[in-house]
């Protein structure tokens, strides 16, 4: 049976329905999103970015770092530590090639959009990303692939710093659709998340419950996956506890039904 949730949001908050597009639904593009966590003075904090209004997807919304899978993310030459692609494939219900690409996309997009690098030199997780500033810009421009970046700098991708969280699919009536795997990661010691991305006008850390309160009061706009994820994270008393949570992953494709100043979000298996 579908689960139905109702959000009290202000009119124009950007999470209502759109008119159905003509023709068949667009095939969703594979994507990865990373929920970065840290422990603040009053509890778990999450890194959020307010997207530029003109962005073709989720413009003006508050989101976690992430983006689409690049064709080069399937490169098997990537130096890899942690759970193998087969483990991720089982968790996300996909083949190993896509699982590898999703993990690589998660690491690449996190570095591109927040400056946080889930990698190591040998067994030592990177604590200072300053030496990789130029490479970060080349990753963003697609002049450089993740595999080439890691190899050139003697780095190893650390899949063990990520954990699977959820899998959301954009509703079929939307003109841009994504099949997005959500990962969770704790901010590595010594690293700083920044807002140095052209896709966001502001970035920062916030407690999940505060972000939801801002959305309810119209100070920010959240899509249902972001809202629900924040609500789930608010149940944990530490970032380590959230990362250690065992979760059963299944595809979720929400149905959005506008009802006055409320949006009913019906969660169905995709």
Automatic annotation (TrEMBL):
Gene3D superfamilies: Nucleoside Triphosphate Pyrophosphohydrolase
Domain of life: Bacteria
UniProt xrefs under PROSITE patterns: NUDIX
Residues covered by the Nudix hydrolase domain: 28-236
Cofactor: Mn(2+); Mg(2+)
Cell wall biogenesis/degradation found in the keyword field: no
Name of this chain's protein: Nudix hydrolase domain-containing protein
Lineage: Bacteria, Bacillati, Actinomycetota, Actinomycetes, Pseudonocardiales
């Amino acid at each position: 049976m579908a689960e139905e949730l109702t959000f009290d949001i202000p009119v124009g908050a950007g999470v209502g329905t759109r008119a159905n597009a003509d023709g068949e639904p667009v095939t969703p593009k594979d994507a990865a999103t990373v929920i970065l966590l840290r422990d603040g003075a009053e509890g778990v904090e999450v890194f959020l970015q307010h997207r530029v209004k003109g962005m073709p997807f989720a413009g003006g919304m508050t989101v976690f770092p992430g983006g689409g899978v690049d064709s080069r993310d399937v490169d098997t030459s990537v130096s890899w530590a942690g759970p193998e692609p087969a483990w991720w494939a089982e968790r996300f219900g996909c083949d190993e090639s896509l699982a590898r690409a999703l993990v690589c996309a998660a690491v690449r997009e996190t570095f591109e959009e927040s400056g946080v690098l889930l990698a190591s030199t040998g067994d030592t997780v990177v604590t200072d990303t300053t030496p990789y500033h130029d490479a970060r810009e080349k990753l963003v421009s697609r002049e450089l692939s993740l595999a080439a970046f890691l190899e050139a700098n003697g780095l190893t991708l650390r899949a063990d710093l990520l954990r699977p969280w959820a899998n959301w699919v954009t509703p079929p009536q939307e003109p841009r659709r994504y099949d997005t795997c959500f990962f969770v990661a704790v901010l590595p010691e010594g690293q700083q998340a920044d807002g140095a991305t052209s896709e966001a006008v502001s970035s920062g850390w916030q407690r999940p419950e505060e972000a939801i309160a801002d959305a309810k009061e119209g100070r920010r706009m959240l899509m249902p996956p972001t809202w629900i994820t924040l609500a789930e994270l608010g149940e944990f008393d530490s970032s380590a506890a959230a990362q250690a949570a065992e979760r059963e992953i299944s595809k979720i494709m929400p149905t959005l039904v506008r009802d006055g100043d409320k949006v009913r979000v019906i969660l169905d298996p995709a």
